[in-house]
Each structure stands twice: as C-alpha cells, then as structure tokens.
Write a structure and sequence with these properties.
The structure is a single chain. The protein is built from 13 helices and 16 strands. The strands form 3 sheets. It has a 9-stranded mixed beta sheet with strand order 11-10-9-8-12-6-13-16-15, with helices on both faces. Strands 2-1-3-4-5 form a 5-stranded mixed beta sheet, with helices on both faces. Strands 7-14 form a two-stranded antiparallel ribbon. α3 runs parallel beside α4.
C-alpha cells in the first residue's frame, strides 16, 4: 500500500506533536506517534521529558485494545534494540497494530532498517517516507548528531536597517521589537545549548535564559568561548550558574600565550578555581576550533546549539562551515555611528543554504535559511 493524502494528514499531525518536547528529551529524539483506527485517533503521544518512555509505548497504552488492527503513524522508525526500555517495534507487534507509517528511517546503526524489518517479519504492513522532508526538519538535531557527530547549529542574528548588530561600548542594544524577542525565547526553549563569545558576555552581560512565562524551566545550557577565563565573577551568567548550567570553554592547558590573554598559568588556575567555586564548569578545548568543540559537545548529549553572538563568533562558525540554519532578523531601527557591522546580511548568505521562509514579527522581518541534512 502506498502513502496516501490521508496518511500525510495524520503524519503532519504527528510531526506537529513531536515538536512539543524539542530540546527536552535528553539524548533521545522528540518523536510523535498517533494510533489511528477507522480514521479516528485513538492514541497519541510524544517522547516523554528526559527521553522515556518513548512515544509509541505511550500512544499504544492510551489506545489499549483499540490498537489492534489500527495504523500507527510515527515520525521516526521504531527502535528495535533493547536499551533501558524494550524495543518499540516489539510493543507495536504485541498490541496487534496492522500497519505502521514512518516519516524518517533511523540512522542509528542499532536501529537503521531493523525496526522496519522486525515489523514486516511479524506481518505488519510498513510504509516509510511519509512527509520525509518535514520529518527530517523536526528531527534535525538528532539526525545531525547521529550522522555528523556534532550538534545541529543555528546562527541567530538581529541586524539593523544600516547593517549593524550592536554599538561599541553600549552593552545590549534592542534591535528587534518585543514580538521578535518572544520568538527568540521560544527558540531557546527548544534548544539544548546556547553559545556566545567572551566579548559578548562581557559587553552585554547577558542572562541567556528563557524568560517567557511558563517556559523558564526550559532554559538551555549556556556556553561561553573564553580562552583566558576572563568571564567576570560578577556577571549574570556566573551569578546564576547553579540554577542554569554554564560551561566556559578555555584554551587547552599550556596553550594560552601571554599575548593572547595576558594570563599566566597561575592566573588561569586562580580564575578557574573561582569560577568553579561559583558553579561554572570549565572545559579546556580550543575555543576557536569549532570542528573540535562541537563533537565534544555531542558526547555530552547536546544535539542542538544556538549561536547568538557576537560578530567574531558568528564568523568563526560560518567560516568553518558548521552552521546548519541561519535565522536572520532585519529590523527598521538605525544604529548609526559606532555600530558593530553584521557578519552577514540577506545579500551574502553562504552557498549551500536554501531560503526556507519569511515571517513578520511586528515591524521585524525574519528570513530563515537552511543547509540540507
């Protein structure tokens, strides 16, 4: 049986459902599952917070006996291996599901194709590839970590009408309006980690948490590229490190030159001890080699990373070819004299990126660009 418009309608609903827990399922992907009997949804679920239980087992439990002879719509191929929980493919078989429609096959070598094979061997009809492009987009962070051994990287820039992202010596400058800023808060809430350079951390003294009412608990891990451990102990990041994790990425021990940071080994030891006493985690991994840093973050279970500032850090990731999505906000405000030039505007998007949409938030325009997975 081929995939029908009827199947695509239910898969679209499963994909929307899967987005509910983005950034909140630890190392597991946020998967959506619907159980449909005679055109009626009798069970639905998304991967639970912290990653377990999986979507399929929850949806099947909700459907109960109605799952027998039903169709399951799953955004990612059901797992087939025994981990901390039994395989979801076994649960689908046990409940007597007649057909399974899948959006994306799982690249995890423990699963890839095996979940489908297990279902078919049990006599269950399986169709894969329903709304695959949309499914891959919703699973972008998981797929990137599985296939590229690094997090999915989003670069967010807010650019003024005269091409600036801030003003020298002015600290945080409001470029976009409240509607756009609320959208950025939502983006933070579905991201595992957020990253800035030490220049931005010192100049802006940002908090980098989620401040939208009801979403505060979804604040991402905060990461600062800080070769000489210059992050002030009085900063908002350090002051809140015991509430929301902060990781400072310092130069590898013994590799920091006096010219680079003006810090002696004794200074570095002292700064490190003070930061750690305040609850900050210090990691020694060359901050300016993202091709080394990103795999290290992936080993910690970080699947999605939001790069928010500043210009030097944005250029670093762009020049390394390690940005997967660009969110470019363009605002009517003019910065004028002393402005910090944006590393990017709508006329010089790097090759390999496709424009995927435009949205308006008040007077601010958001253009999104993505590189194929």
């Amino acid at each position: 049986m081929s995939i029908t418009p009827h199947d695509e309608r239910f898969m679209a609903a499963a994909i929307r459902l899967s987005r509910w827990h983005l950034g909140r399922t630890a190392t597991n992907p946020s998967v959506g599952c619907l159980i449909v009997k005679d055109g009626v949804i009798v069970g639905r679920a998304v991967t639970a917070l912290s990653g377990r239980p999986h979507a399929e087992t929850q949806a099947l439990a909700e459907a109960g006996v109605l799952a027998r002879g039903a169709t399951a719509y799953v955004t990612l191929e059901p797992c087939s291996h025994h981990g901390k929980t039994p395989p979801c493919a076994e649960a689908l078989i046990a409940y007597g599901v007649a057909r399974v429609v899948i959006s994306v096959t799982d690249p995890d070598p423990r699963v890839s194709g095996r979940g489908i094979a297990m279902l078919r061997e049990a006599g269950i009809e399986v169709d894969a590839g329903a709304l695959e492009a949309e499914g891959r987009q919703s699973l972008a962070a998981y797929l990137t970590r599985q296939t590229k051994n690094r997090p999915y990287v989003t670069l967010k820039l807010a650019v003024s009408a005269d091409g600036m992202i801030g003003r020298e010596g002015a600290g945080q400058v409001a470029i976009t309006g409240p509607e756009a800023r609320a959208q950025v808060q939502a983006l933070r809430a579905e991201t595992d980690a957020i990253l800035v350079g030490i220049g931005t951390a010192i100049a802006d003294d940002p908090l980098l948490t989620v401040r939208s009412p009801g979403l505060e608990s979804q604040s991402p891990i905060r990461i600062v590229l800080d070769p000489s451990l210059a992050l002030p102990l009085t900063s908002k990041l350090v002051a809140t490190a015991r509430e929301v994790p902060v990781i400072v990425v310092a130069s590898e021990e013994g590799s920091l030159s006096q010219a680079e940071g003006g810090a002696s080994p004794a200074d570095m030891d002292s700064r490190r001890a003070a930061l750690e006493a305040a609850g900050v985690e210090v990691v020694h991994c060359n901050p300016y080699h993202p091709e080394v840093l990103l795999p290290a973050l992936a080993t910690r279970g970080i699947s999605s990373l939001l790069v928010e500032g500043g210009a030097k850090t944005a250029r670093l990731f762009l020049e390394a070819g390690l940005v997967d999505r660009i969110q470019l906000y363009q605002a009517p405000v003019v910065i004028g004299e002393g402005g910090i030039e944006s590393p990017l505007d709508a006329t010089d998007i790097p090759s390999g990126f496709a424009h995927t949409g435009t949205l308006m938030f008040g007077g601010d325009r958001l253009d999104e660009y993505e590189r194929g997975l």
